[in-house]
Each structure stands twice: as C-alpha cells, then as structure tokens.
C-alpha cells in the first residue's frame, strides 16, 4: 500500500510517499527556517502563508521522486494536530481536496504518532511493545507503545518542552534560532561539569519532566556573570545545560523501563537528534541490556515520511477520516 503523506504542522512543508509503513519511496522537506530566523522563532502567520506557497510543488516533487502519479497512490495521509492551527489547516485542506478529487481514503494522523513511527522506517525489525521518549520543540512525552496505534502516556513536561528549553537557552547565549543544533555543536567544545545546573523533577510524578527551572537557572547564571563583569564561557554553559537535560531524560526513561519491565527503548522528535542525548542513551542501553532504537536526524525533525508510516498502521487498524476532518491544534495522543 502506497500512501502519499503531508505534514505542515509547524515550519516545515513536507510530503512523502511511503510503502507499507516502512519503505520510503520519496521524502521532500521544504524548511522555512531561514525565513523565521530573523524573527527569533516561528511566526505562525508567515508559516501558514509559506505552506500555501510550497505545498503543491512539494507534493509534485514527492510524487515525481517516487516515480508515481497521483492515481498510483492508494491513500492520502495528513497531520491534523497538534500544531499551529493555520499551518495544519493548509495540509488538511490540501489532503482533503486530493482525497476528494481522486476518491481515495483520507487518513488524519497525530503528529506525535508520526514522530514515534519514524522509528519503524529505519528499524525494520522494531515492533511494539516498547517505550518511546518523544522530545521535540513542542512536546516531551514518555510513552508506552503497547501496539500499533495504542499508546499510554506515562509522563510529560509540566512546563517547557525539551526543544523549547534548547531554543530559549540558545537565544540567551546569543546563538539564534533554531537553537537545538547550535547548542549541540557548541556544547562539544565545553565542559559539562563546569556549572552545576538543576535537574528538574516533579514531586510525586516520577515520569514527568520540568525544564523551566533549568532555563531560569541558565538565565540567572548569565545575569550574574554580566553583573559581576565576568566573561561567559558559552561552550561551558551549553555543555552544562545539555548535561542537565540528558540526566532528566535518561533517568525518567530508565525508571520507566525498570518499573514496567520493558527491554526496548526508542527516542523520537527533533531533540532526539542531539548528539549528547544519543550517546548517553546508547551507552546506558548497552550497560543495561536494553535494545535502543533511534531515527537518523532527518527523520527526527519534522518530515512527512513518519506521517506516512503512522498512517499505514492507522489504516490497518481501520482508521480513515471523512471530508469533515479538521485541524485540531491541541489534539491529544
Ligand atoms: O520535532 P521537531 O522538528 O518539531 C516539533 O514537532 O516541535 O523539533 C524541533 C525542535 C527544536 O526545538 C530544535 O531546536 C530541536 O528540535 N532540535 C535539537 C537538535 N536538533 C533539533 N535540539 C537539540 N539538539 C539538536 N541537535
Ligand atoms: Zn514535530
């Protein structure tokens, strides 16, 4: 089954053709990062307009790269939430129009389910059940993937998402947007033990995350340096901040693996491409005999191939949508 998938929930306009949930026939991503960079973050209104401009060329390119015509795909999938409502609407309207015009099934996909499913693409042997840590710009979720399309959320962030914390710290140290990859690169030059930043915890909720205290600690540290006239070692700040995030993520994920007796762990979302996070999980999993799965960086950040994968399993579970499908900005998993 070949699915044409569309993703437009934030600042990437993406389309892909995916066969049977695991084989990517094409994947096209048009990033708007250079446009939003000058505003220091994603401007929703601009994102929607750019999606409108980009979506048809991106879909045409995805079909052409897969050597297929629209008639030759079997279903149309689209992210319908969560995300920016105006951005989501562009993809949803496009997918509905194509499904209507070609009389093919329409499958609305949850964006987080897409991130989790990116793991199926590169790990052909991965089957549920497993635990997945989803860390992106908008979400930090610790999830038990009980079966295809069946999720139990063990914990989530009580305040900032992990990616949001990376972006805010990057801005504070003057690295610009998007901050995650820049902090990752700068941290490589720094000492992760140089500054003792807090490891956020939520009392009584062992699987929940909190990153706002860490972000404030970084801002306070920078303010104090400025007041004292001390020069800031930005690499040490990045490395020490990143070490705190790594500890928070690793400790929650392994608590869940131990408590629920799982031996398989996957990570997903833009922050999952962070080099320190990946290597910490690789070495912990090796030590503890846990199988570890992670997508390549291009499948961690927003893309449509992951939506095509999730849609295949949704379809097999009997999920299709009517032409009344709407964008749901705060869609629950
Ligand atoms: O999954 P994604 O593309 O979009 C959302 O669904 O939110 O994630 C984007 C987030 C941004 O906050 C970005 O700074 C972060 O992922 N990110 C990273 C890295 N690459 C992207 N964070 C840390 N290290 C990275 N290498
Ligand atoms: Zn995402």
TrEMBL record:
Any one GO molecular function term: tRNA N(6)-L-threonylcarbamoyladenine synthase activity
Residues bound to Fe cation: 111, 115, 302
A GO CC term assigned to this protein in UniProt: cytoplasm
Binding site for substrate: 134-138, 167, 180, 184, 274
TM segment ranges: none
Keyword Thylakoid among record annotations: no
EC number: 2.3.1.234
Catalytic reaction(s) noted: L-threonylcarbamoyladenylate + adenosine(37) in tRNA = N(6)-L-threonylcarbamoyladenosine(37) in tRNA + AMP + H(+)
Cofactor(s) listed: Fe(2+)
Cofactor, how bound (note): Binds 1 Fe(2+) ion per subunit.
Domain Gcp-like: 23-308
Protein's GO biological process: tRNA threonylcarbamoyladenosine modification
Keywords attached to this entry: Acyltransferase, Cytoplasm, Iron, Metal-binding, Transferase, tRNA processing
Record-linked HAMAP family: TsaD
Role of this protein: Required for the formation of a threonylcarbamoyl group on adenosine at position 37 (t(6)A37) in tRNAs that read codons beginning with adenine. Is involved in the transfer of the threonylcarbamoyl moiety of threonylcarbamoyl-AMP (TC-AMP) to the N6 group of A37, together with TsaE and TsaB. TsaD likely plays a direct catalytic role in this reaction.
Family (UniProt): Belongs to the KAE1 / TsaD family.
Protein name (database record): tRNA N6-adenosine threonylcarbamoyltransferase
UniProt organism field: Eubacterium uniforme
């Amino acid at each position: 089954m070949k699915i044409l998938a569309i993703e437009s929930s934030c600042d990437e306009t993406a389309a892909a053709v995916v066969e049977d949930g695991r084989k990517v026939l094409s994947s096209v991503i048009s990033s708007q990062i250079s446009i939003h960079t000058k505003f220091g973050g994603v401007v929703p209104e601009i994102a929607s307009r750019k999606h409108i401009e980009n979506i048809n060329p991106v879909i045409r390119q995805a079909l052409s790269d897969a050597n297929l015509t629209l008639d030759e795909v079997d279903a149309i999938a689209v992210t319908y939430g969560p995300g920016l409502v105006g951005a989501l609407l562009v993809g949803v309207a496009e997918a509905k129009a194509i499904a209507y015009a070609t009389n093919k099934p329409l499958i609305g996909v949850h964006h987080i389910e897409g991130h989790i499913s990116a793991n199926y693409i590169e790990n052909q042997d991965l089957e549920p059940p497993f635990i997945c840590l989803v860390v992106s710009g908008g979400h930090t979720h610790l999830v038990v993937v009980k079966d295809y399309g069946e999720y139990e959320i063990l914990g989530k962030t009580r305040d900032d998402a992990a990616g949001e914390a990376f972006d805010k710290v990057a801005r504070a140290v003057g690295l610009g947007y998007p901050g995650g990859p820049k902090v990752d690169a700068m941290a490589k030059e720094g000492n992760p033990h140089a500054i003792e930043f807090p490891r956020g915890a939520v009392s009584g909720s062992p699987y929940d995350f909190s990153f706002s205290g860490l972000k404030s600690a970084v801002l306070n540290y920078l303010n104090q340096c400025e007041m004292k006239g001390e020069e800031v070692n930005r690499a040490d700040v990045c490395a020490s901040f990143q070490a705190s995030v790594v500890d928070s993520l690793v400790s929650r994920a392994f608590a869940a693996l131990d408590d629920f007796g799982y031996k398989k762990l996957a990570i997903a979302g833009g922050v999952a491409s962070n080099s320190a996070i990946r290597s910490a999980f690789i070495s912990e999993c090796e030590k503890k005999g846990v199988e570890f799965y992670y997508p390549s960086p291009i499948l961690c950040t927003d893309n449509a191939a992951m939506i095509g994968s999730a849609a295949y399993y949704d379809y097999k579970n009997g999920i299709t949508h009517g032409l009344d499908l709407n964008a749901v900005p705060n869609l629950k998993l």
